[in-house]
Amino acid sequence: MERNIIITGGAGFIGSHVVRLFVKKYPQYRIINVDKLTYAGNLENLADIEKEPNYVFEKADITDKTAIEAVFEKYKVDGVIHLAAESHVDRSITNPNEFIFTNVIGTATLLNAAVKFWKDNMQGKLFYHISTDEVYGSLDDGGFFTETTSYDPRSPYSASKASSDHLVRAYNNTYKLPVVVSNCSNNYGPNQFPEKLIPLAFNNIKNSKPIPVYGKGENIRDWLYVIDHASAIDTIFHKGKVGDTYNIGGNNEWTNIDLIRLLCKIMDQKLNRPSGESEKLITFVKDRAGHDLRYAIDSSKLQQELAWAPSVTFETGLEKTVEWYLQNSQWLNNIVSGTYEKYYEQQYNSR
Ligand code: NAD
Ligand code: DAU
């Protein structure tokens, strides 16, 4: 194999799209999916590529030094694309420690392994850390997040991601570890776990259940189709400047309420419901604690320096997403039972 690349969190939402892209596009690379399979990890996401000769799965917790070093040793790893994380803001509010363990200690464990195995020859190695726009805080007064915006994380999730970003850059400075970091806006698309706004709302609309909108639905997010995030990761992994940071975004801002209205409209059409039927399900509920008002990414550095651009408009991407969830109802049904029901009960019944 030309390269041996670990993709952490490859059984999750974004990770599975990145694994698929790399496995298919680069048959000369061995892709090692390292995932603990938490509630968010689902090997069903990769059923179509699991038998490819350049794909292997290693079940491991990124906080487990012995397990991670064993993977580095076994495959002579020369690249890491690090996506494994606890990723849901609401869960970070009820259980912050889980986020600190995985996102901070887990990232440090991977960095330590990379330094240990690569220290004698850093040539051709790369540690690519996938981060979020939430580390920059909330844009309450307009403007956009650029790569030089100061960090101002405001939830346990974003604080844990910010800590991991700092560690990655510190290892670059201190140990000369070749790193690159990207900070992306909200993703949507196939295989997203239905705790996140779009698949949760899809599932509730489909089942004629209330759609919980936090506060007044005025919060703004910048949405990017997950396939476009995967293509940006491919571009940055291969063309990004070592030591640099790249912001990734869709230039596509929506208030939550407008987004939900658009989703309702698409769902009415797809489910042959009278126009306006699904909107009746919109229910304003208690706001998220410390809810960031607006995120918006300036991705001009990535667009200009590395010639990346998103491939779909939001309307097209959302329609494709709805079609995927409708065609893959078994995938969704397998998730929204058992422990998911318990989570939903705890999260929404007191709101
Ligand atoms: P996800 O929650 O869908 O998947 C996370 C994956 O990581 C799961 O497969 C899970 O099993 C695995 N994992 C969790 N803890 C682990 C551990 N200790 N050891 C090994 N594996 C573990 O997450 P996602 O939405 O796909 O996000 C992936 C990455 O992208 C995260 O780092 C997240 O911060 C970042 N990100 C996400 C978004 C978004 O909108 N979803 C936007 C920007 C950045
Ligand atoms: O910005 C990037 C981040 O986007 C990623 O780093 C995170 O991993 C990812 O989860 C996402 O965070 P958000 O908190 O923005 O996503 P979420 O889908 O949870 O919520 C989107 C918006 O919708 C947010 O303003 C909260 C609101 N919301 C969410 C849920 C789950 C609701 O109004 N109702 C809900 O039930």
Your description of this structure?
This protein is an alpha/beta fold and about 350 residues long. The chain has a domain at about 5-185 and about 225-250 and about 295-310: Rossmann fold, CATH 3.40.50. Helices cover about 45% and strands about 15% of the residues. It contains twelve helices and twelve strands. It has helices at about 15-25, 65-75, 90-95, 95-120, 155-175, 195-205, 225-240, 255-270, 300-305, 315-325, 330-335, 340-350; strands at about 5-10, 30-35, 55-60, 80, 125-130, 180-185, 185-190, 210-215, 220-225, 245-250, 255, 280-285. The longest helix is centred in the first third of the chain and has 23 residues, at about 95-120. It is globular. The protein starts with a strand and ends with a helix. Bound molecules: nicotinamide-adenine-dinucleotide and 2'deoxy-thymidine-5'-diphospho-alpha-D-glucose.
The parts where pLDDT drops under 50 for at least 5 residues are none
CATH class of the domain at 3-186 and 223-250 and 294-312: Alpha Beta
**CATH architecture tag of the domain at 3-186 and 223-250 and 294-312:** 3-Layer(aba) Sandwich
The whole-angstrom Rg is 20 Å
Instruction: Write out the CATH superfamily name of the domain at 3-186 and 223-250 and 294-312.
Output: NAD(P)-binding Rossmann-like Domain
Name the ligand types: nicotinamide-adenine-dinucleotide, 2'deoxy-thymidine-5'-diphospho-alpha-D-glucose
The run of helices and strands is EHEEHEHHEHEEHEEHEEHEHHHH
> Which percent band covers the strand fraction?
15-25%
Helix residue percentage = 40-55%
The total beta strand count reads: 12
CATH topology of the domain at 3-186 and 223-250 and 294-312: Rossmann fold
Distance between the termini: 52 Å
Mean pLDDT: 97
Class inferred from helices and paired strands: alpha/beta
| Tally of helical runs | 12
Strand order in the largest sheet: 3-2-1-4-5-6-10
Categorize the overall geometry: globular
Give the biggest sheet.
7 strands, parallel
